[in-house]
Write a structure and sequence with these properties.
5 helices; single chain; four-stranded mixed β-sheet; Nucleoside Triphosphate Pyrophosphohydrolase; alpha/beta; TIM Barrel; 2 domains; about 260 residues; binds 8-OXO-2'-deoxyguanosine-5'-triphosphate
């Protein structure tokens, strides 16, 4: 196989009503057989990402995916293939049917941040970490943000200051990322972005925070989500401004979650 050619792959993070997500094991005969992954596979000629996802879930697990939300993308080079992964989230109400393993694979429900199965496909480690980031947070820019709902992973993130404990998740402007990565673990740094350049710089951070205080912020974020889908979760920070423009449905457009500013 020519491993230089980029192969388009879709994978779905399928949820049940308890907020758990599905992992399946790769069947015998495939590369990385026995490793755990999100169900999915290669996009075939003429398919959209959604139709490919629907076909794969039907073939592998016998269920119907009604809708799916674009989430993260990632490029990864394996020995056997160079893949462009497109991860989608499929909410509990966005699929129907009875799960059954149609390819002699195993499957199991997992809770974010509490994996009980191993090994994972190598490209998936940051994707699994991203699932532990809550989708609703709130707080103030100067003091930090925290999870809103008891049903979601509990997380607090604080503005960076020197000497802050390495285990704390912090946020700082994207252009300080390189410097801060020498002081603090990169997988605990969230990057604040408001330009294309910063968006690109932030692709090695744990997450992006995109503050919205003007129509231009909305327009640019819409463009970036469409043209340069992120490989790290994007949190839309809705600032308390006089902005009267209705906000797009960010969660359906590729954002991971929303941060609401408190007075
Ligand atoms: N399905 C899936 N594939 C993933 C994930 N993460 C990841 O790196 N991959 C990689 C592994 C493979 O190299 C590639 C998917 O190709 P595949 O061989 O499983 O695709 P397929 O089901 O269409 O297989 P086939 O018909 O060619 O046998 O993407 C993931 O979470 N799910």
């Amino acid at each position: 196989m020519n491993t230089d050619k980029l192969v388009e792959v879709v994978a779905g993070v399928l949820y049940n009503p308890q907020g758990e997500f599905l992992l399946s094991s790769r069947p015998a005969g495939k590369a990385y057989a026995g490793y755990w992954e999100f169900a999915g596979g290669k996009v075939e000629t003429g398919e959209t990402y959604l139709t490919a996802l629907q076909r794969e879930f039907k073939e592998e697990l016998g269920i119907d995916v009604i809708q799916a939300t674009p989430w993260l993308t990632k490029i990864h080079k394996y020995e056997h293939a160079h893949v462009h992964l497109h991860f989608y989230r499929i909410g509990a109400r966005q699929w129907r049917g009875q799960l059954c393993a149609r390819e002699q694979q195993s499957w199991c429900w997992q809770q974010p941040g509490k994996l009980t199965v191993t090994p994972m496909l190598p490209a998936n480690a940051p994707i699994l970490a991203a699932l532990s980031i809550p989708t609703r947070m709130r707080g103030q820019f100067n003091t930090g943000f925290h999870t809103v709902s008891a049903q979601e992973p509990q997380l607090k993130i604080l503005p960076y200051h020197s000497g802050i404990a390495a285990a704390v998740s912090i946020y700082a402007p994207a252009n300080q990322l390189q410097y801060l990565a020498q002081q603090h673990p990169i997988d605990h740094i969230w990057a604040i972005c408001s330009s294309r350049e910063q968006w690109q710089q932030a692709q090695s951070a744990a997450a992006i925070i995109w503050p919205i205080s003007s129509i231009d912020d909305i327009k640019l974020l819409l463009t970036l989500l469409q043209q340069e889908p992120s490989s790290v979760p994007v949190m839309v920070f809705q600032k308390k401004t006089g902005l009267t423009t209705p906000q797009p449905d960010w969660m359906n457009l590729g954002a991971h979650g929303i941060i609401h500013e408190l007075e």
